[in-house]
Amino acid sequence: MIKRYDSDKMKQLVFNIYQAYGFSDDESEKVAHTLIYTDLHGIESHGVQRMVMYDHFIQNGKIRVKSQPEIVKQTDVSAVVDAHFGLGQLNGIYSMEVAIKKAKEHGVGIVTTRHSGHYGIAGYYANMAAEQGLIGMSSTNSRPAMLPTHATKAFVGTNPIAFAMPAKPHTFIFDAATSTVPQGKIEVYRKLEKDLPALWVAKNGDEPVYDHNDTHDLDLLRDPEANVGLAPLGGVSEATGSHKGFGLGIIVEVFTSILSMGNTSTEISPADLQVGPSQSFIAIDPAIFGDKDQIVNRFSEYLQNIRELPAIPGKTIYVHGDKEAIAYADRKKNGIEIDDHTLEEIMTIAQRLGVDYKPFIG
C-alpha cells in the first residue's frame, strides 16, 4: 500500500539517518534534499526507495563516508574529477558546481567524474545549472542492465541522459534512461505486486517478461551472465527503433567512463569495492549565443505552442517538466508517496543506527 508522508518530516528523518552514518551536517542536508526533491517531483523509483541500496553499499564499504571528490585534471572549460567512491549525490553536486563555475567564467563547463556512486536522478544535476540561468546536462553509466540490439545478455547500463533549460512558467527538464525504463521502476512495480505493463524486460534477446512473480528472471536482472535484461528505448527490434536507445547508451558511455578513464558499465559490479559508476556534468551559458532573456522567452513561447496543439480527446499535451511541476505542487501540499515496503526498509535502517523514526512518520 502507498501512503502519503509530510516531505519536511521525511527530509529531517533522512538527514538524521545520514548524520548517523557519519556524514557532516552539510553533506547530510545535501543528500536529504536530493532524495526528497526526487520524491516531490513524483520519481519514486529514485527517491527514498533507493536508501536501502545505499545502506548496503555503506555497510560493505563500496560507498566510503569520509571520501571527498578531487579534481585530477582541468582546463578553463573542463575537469576530470576522481570521486574516490564517495556517495554519488555528493560527488554529483560537487562536479556540477565545478561545471557551473566554469560556465559562468568561460561560457561552458564540462566535467567528467570517475569512481563515483549511484547518484539518484540525473535531472537533479541538470536542474542545478538551470537554477543558475544556465543550460544543464548530466549523465551516468551503471552496471550492465540493457540488452544491445539482438544480444541475449545485458552489456550496457541504463545510462540516463538529463537536460534542463530555464523556461516559463517553469524549467524544461528531460530526464530519461536510454533503456525503456530504469531498474528502479522494475523494483517499484515488484514492491507493489504489479505486473509489468509493456516490454520492459526480455529474456533470450526478445521474449518479454511481464509477471512480477517471475522471480527467476527478474532476480537475474543486471546479472551479466544471465539471458535477461532491460529493453533499450525502442524495444528489442530494429523495426521499432531498438538501435536508437542502444546507441544513446553508448554515447553516454563516452561522456562518462571513456573521457574520465573511469569504469565502463561492463566493469561495474556491486560486489567489487574498487569500481564505481562514471558520470558527466555540463553547464552552458546561453549568453554566449545572444541575449539570454530573449533566448529563454523564445524557448518558452515554443514550448507553449506545443502545449496548445490539438490533442487527442481526453488527453493533455505536456512538455518535459510539466508533470514534475504538477507532482511537486501536489506532493508539497499533500505529502510524498511511499509504499509500505520502502517505509519498512527506512525504519529498519533508522533502528539499526539508533535514529528515532516515530516522530516523522505519524
UniProtKB/TrEMBL annotation:
Transmembrane segments: none annotated. Keywords: Oxidoreductase. Belongs to the LDH2/MDH2 oxidoreductase family. It comes from the Bacteria. One of its GO terms (molecular function) is (2R)-2-hydroxyacid dehydrogenase (NADP+) activity. InterPro entries: Mal/L-sulf/L-lact_DH-like_ah, Mal/L-sulf/L-lact_DH-like_NADP, Mal/L-sulfo/L-lacto_DH-like_sf, Malate/L-lactate_DH-like. Its EC number is 1.1.1.272. This is (R)-2-hydroxyacid dehydrogenase. It is an enzyme of class 1 (oxidoreductase).
